[in-house]
Structures are given as structure tokens and as C-alpha cells.
Amino acid sequence: MNFSSKLLEDAVNEFSKLPGVGQKTALRLVLHLLNKEQEEVELFGNALIRLRKEIKHCQVCHNISDNQLCNICAAAKREKEVICVVEDTRDVMAIENTGQYFGLYHVLGGLISPMDGIGPSDLFIDSLVQRVATTPVKEVILALSATMEGDTTLFYLYKRLKDFHVPITTIARGIAFGGELEYADEITLGRSIVTRVPYQTSLIK
Amino acid sequence: MNFSSKLLEDAVNEFSKLPGVGQKTALRLVLHLLNKEQEEVELFGNALIRLRKEIKHCQVCHNISDNQLCNICAAAKREKEVICVVEDTRDVMAIENTGQYFGLYHVLGGLISPMDGIGPSDLFIDSLVQRVATTPVKEVILALSATMEGDTTLFYLYKRLKDFHVPITTIARGIAFGGELEYADEITLGRSIVTRVPYQTSLIK
Lengths: 205, 205
Prior knowledge:
Two copies of one chain form a homodimer.
Chain A: H1 6-15, H2 23-34, H3 38-54, E1 56-57, E2 64-65, H4 71-74, E3 79-86, H5 89-98, E4 103-107, H6 126-134, E5 139-142, H7 148-161, E6 168-170, H8 186-194
Parallel strand pairs in A: 3-4, 3-5, 5-6
Antiparallel strand pairs in A: 1-2
């Protein structure tokens, strides 16, 4: 592109480094910001700079936090003996949004993926083992994606945790609510028959 | 959404004010920035803040510029007696990218649109009339979009400029290169027959 201004070019180039943002989209967003008040643009830029500079990770569960201890780990009302292991902070937000979970979390910071060069030592796995070894834990829930990387990580975590004789569970897999059988993929449908559960009227809403 | 951090929430909210960016996309972009080096995020934030603070508009053509006079108006080699009138700086970039135009520009800053409350006085129309009245001008090219607002603006500019006896032209409209006749809309095809032009072998590449 043929920019009339170096400032404009810099801003567009910075924006187009974001994932999924090309040069045309970047230009559109930058011109949008140019039409805003100067204070608004400063709020935007400073929010990003402050975020990167001041954000912390919870010392216990490694979730993104404003303090040394995140809101969830610091809350008095949570069940402190249940740990739900997730890939990243987005999963914590998704589970919190369900309103169905009241224990603590452990954010791994990724999944084991030899293809991307991510091994167990790149993730917060040792500190999970440490938590299970040193604090009273009643249950470890492994809530990982049903992908190759998720399954690899699941198996590795199981091997590391099994000797502590703490119940290890995974989230239920099967046909989604509202999903029709004929459109479900074969593996999901097959597994959901094999892992069928007793009918519970208490779960019907 | 249920944010674990106020800093994160602020950054996501600022991002989701951008056009076409929802909360989920904003979160994805913010988490991407969190994984970058602090210097990179500062470059990004500061590029936006500096842009809004330091950007100028060319005193002659109102294009976005780093200086009082934009690169195009300041260039020695351009044909200074031809003015191409466009809606905004994106159109300047699009025409510059063709490499087919060597005159100057005049950026209106929008189009007349009574529906959006934009009248002639909100645009840089008086300064265009001033340029035509006080500097030697050989031709004014009106390169506006073929929309209702574009046509309204075109007609208004024609009325304001016609008494100066300067040739006023508009960019050619018709079937796009590579376009097939059977898929062209009726108005474009009809007009392109009415405004047919002599066959010129010199334009064949």
C-alpha cells in the first residue's frame, strides 16, 4: 500500500500483525480510531500497554490476575479441595460462565504438542503435581479439549497424578444438548453409547 | 463475560469498541498481545496514540499527512493543474496504487448524505472552490463512488464549479475488466452501451 503518512503506515503495520487482521482491515480500524477523540484513543492504547505491563498470573493456579492470588483462589466460598485443570484462561471463563462449578482451577498454559515443540516442561504441570502432593485434594477434574493434543496431555497428567490416589475425572463427552443423533459424527455417537449413563430425572430441567 | 482481571476486562472492552470486533474476537486479540514481548505491545499502543496526537491534514488537499503539506502536494513532479476530488484518504491510496494518475488530489472528508446529517458545509467543498478560483486549474476530475451520496455530491460540486469554466470530468463507469456481460447488472450494462466510446488499440495491453 501507498501511505501518505509514516504515522499512518506504522499504525496500520502494527494492527496488521494481529491474527486474522490484514492490511485492509487494519487501515479501516486505524481510520476509525483517527475519527475518535484523542482521549478515547489514549484510553485504548494505554489499556493495552498497562495490561501487558501490570498483569500478573496467580501464584497458585496460574490464571490471569490483577494480584498475586486470583479472585477464584482467594474466594472464601469455593471448594478448595477440587481442582479443575484447563488449557488457558478462556476455558476458565467458559466454565465460570456455566455457573455449575465451585472448585478451584489449574491453568496449564497450553497442551503438550510435539509438533509445535511444546513439551511437559513448557507447561505448569510440575506445579500441579506439587499442589496435589502438598495440599488436601479430593478430586482432580481434567477439562481439556477432545483433540490429539488434549488426549496426549490427559494421558501424561494421568500418569503423573495416579500414584497420589486422588480421584481423577474428565468432563463428560457425548452428543451435545440440542444435537440430533443423525448429524453426530460416528466416533462421538459410538463413544456415547459405550459410555452410557443411568437415566437421572434430577438432571431434567 | 466473567473476567478474572480488571486489566483484561478493560483491554477487551476497548478492543470490542472497534467496528466488526465482538467480545470473543477482542479476547482472542488481547490474549495474543499478552503473549508478546512488552516492547512489542508498547510499540503497538504508542503507534496508535502518536498517530491520533501528531497526525496532520494537508493544508491544500486535506489528505492525511505527517506535515503541513502532504507528499503529493509537495512533490515537484506532479501535474499541479489537475485536481482529482475524492471522498477520503483510502481513495487517494487506491488511485495512487494504480500508478496511472500524476495530478493532485482534494479530499472531501465524506459525501453529502442528508440521511446521516452530512451537508456541504461539513465537507471540504469551500476550500475546493477556493483552489479552483485562485490557482490555475486545467481539469477537475470527480472520482466519487457510484452511490446515491456520490451522485448527490457530484451534482452539487458541478453546480458550484461550473461557472469557473474549468473542464469537469468524472471517472469512466462501465463493465469492469474481466467482467462478463451476462452477469453485469442492467443499469451498468445499459449505461455502458449509451456511453460507448471509440475503439482505441492503444489501450490494449
